[in-house]
């Protein structure tokens, strides 16, 4: 099956896995052959991402880039969301109904497209399974959502793919039946128990950025110290990446915060800065993201070079676009963007909030149980 397994202890201090990454990606990606299946048809053509509007990899060593950083920070705020259309009621309706229709409204078409294929579920956490909250340490999912996800995992292989530390996500979800990919897929582990979809006794464990752990810890401590003068700023150590949350920072302080972050990471050329939903994220400069994590998990589940698999990825953040794009490029399954606002996206469908995500997942469970 070509599954990659690594022991966490064996990776620490070993740079060989980083050195082999280019060959690893080439070998892994070459095993996937795009099938003739296309995502369920939507009435209007695909929408491509407008990378010029939102920076995906913010430049660090250029002082003039601070303005671009702040513009990108504003763009991640719901109050500043921009789209190719103005946010009028008509354009909002057009985006939802024509370009990225509701996955609930299109449920029957989605099920029809999945006939004869194994559905595999990939779920972001913040803003998808739990509401977005001011304090990221209190992003708790409801008991009803947890019950729904537990039922989902009994019906389909299910993974949580998050920018959060894997242990933190697990502490929120508390379901041993799932696959967990933390730190944007840089920390992957399979079910601890109770998954009938698990192919091996040994849990999947893949940590392609282990050699960066000391550096990430060092940057985290420096950022905590540097940003403590900015009210509302919160620095989170997600093990293989560091998140600087600015949801509670006054917008007038964003330029200062961006300068503080830059002053730290400009000394670390092996790290890069990316933008999430009201968060600046510092990650290792390896070619690994949520899209690569999705492909790795499909391979781990035994779906290498398979045309009878139907991956569904649900997420609300810009970092989920890497996974949405993978599914479009593969011509298998589809992405669902969780958003109340029109956005450029590679997803095929939309849901407006976690409550709708839960309803969609419950309908999948009900359909599966009726067809056992």
Based on the structure given, which CATH architecture of the largest domain is correct? Answer: 3-Layer(aba) Sandwich
Q: What count of domains describes the coordinates?
A: 2
List segments where confidence is low: pLDDT < 50 over at least 5 consecutive residues: 1-58, 79-87
Structure class: alpha/beta
Question: Would you tell me the overall average pLDDT?
Answer: 80
Q: Tell me, briefly, the overall form.
A: globular
Description:
By secondary structure, the protein is α/β, with parallel strands linked by helices. It has 2 domains: 8-31 and 99-208 and 288-370, Rossmann fold, CATH 3.40.50; 65-82 and 210-284, Alpha-Beta Plaits (2-Layer Sandwich), CATH 3.30.70.1020. It has 13 helices and 12 strands. The chain has helices at residues 8-11, 16-19, 21-30, 65-75, 89-99, 107-114, 143-155, 166-173, 213-227, 254-265, 290-300, 321-330, 354-370, and strands at residues 118-123, 158-161, 179-182, 187-189, 205-206, 234-237, 242-245, 271-276, 279-284, 309-315, 334-338, 349-351. It has an 8-stranded mixed sheet with strand order 5-4-3-2-1-10-11-12, with helices on both faces. Strands 6-7-9-8 form a 4-stranded antiparallel sheet, with helices on one face. A hairpin with a 4-residue loop joins strand 6 (234-237) and strand 7 (242-245). Helix 4 packs across helix 10 (254-265) and helix 9 runs antiparallel to helix 10 (254-265). The longest helix has 17 residues, at 354-370. The radius of gyration is 20 Å and the shape is globular.
């Amino acid at each position: 099956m070509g599954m990659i397994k690594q022991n966490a202890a064996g990776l620490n201090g070993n740079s060989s896995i980083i050195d082999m990454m280019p060959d690893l990606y080439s070998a892994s990606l070459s095993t996937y052959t795009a099938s003739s299946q296309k995502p369920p048809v939507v009435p209007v053509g695909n929408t491509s991402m407008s990378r010029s509007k939102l920076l995906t990899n913010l430049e660090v060593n250029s002082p003039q880039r601070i303005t671009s950083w702040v513009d990108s920070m504003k763009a991640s705020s719901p109050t500043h969301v921009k789209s190719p259309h103005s946010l009028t009621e008509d354009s909002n309706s057009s985006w939802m109904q024509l370009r990225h229709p509701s996955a609930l409204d299109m449920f029957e078409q989605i099920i029809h497209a999945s006939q004869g294929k194994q559905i595999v579920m990939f779920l972001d956490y913040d803003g998808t399974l739990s509401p977005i909250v001011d304090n990221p340490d209190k992003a708790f999912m409801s008991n009803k959502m947890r019950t729904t996800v537990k039922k989902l995992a009994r019906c389909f292989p299910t993974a949580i793919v998050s920018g959060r530390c894997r242990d933190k996500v697990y502490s929120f979800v508390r379901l041993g039946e799932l696959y967990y990919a933390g730190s944007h897929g840089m920390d992957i582990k399979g079910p601890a128990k109770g998954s009938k979809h698990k192919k091996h006794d040994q849990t999947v464990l893949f940590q392609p950025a282990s050699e960066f752990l000391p550096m990430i810890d060092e940057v985290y401590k420096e950022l905590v110290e540097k940003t403590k003068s900015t009210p509302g700023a919160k620095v989170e150590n997600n093990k293989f990446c560091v998140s600087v949350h600015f949801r509670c920072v006054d917008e007038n302080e964003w330029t200062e915060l961006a300068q503080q972050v830059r002053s730290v990471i400009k000394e670390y050329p092996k790290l890069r800065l990316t933008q999430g939903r009201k968060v600046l994220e510092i990650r290792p400069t390896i070619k690994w993201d949520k899209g690569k994590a999705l492909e790795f998990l499909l391979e781990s589940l035994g779906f290498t070079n398979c045309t009878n698999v139907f991956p569904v990825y649900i997420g609300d953040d810009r970092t989920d676009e890497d996974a949405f794009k993978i599914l479009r490029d593969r011509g298998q399954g589809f992405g669902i963007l969780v958003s109340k606002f029109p956005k450029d996206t590679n997803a095929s469908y939309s849901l407006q909030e976690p409550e709708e995500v839960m309803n969609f997942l419950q309908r999948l469970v009900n359909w599966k149980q009726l067809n056992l």
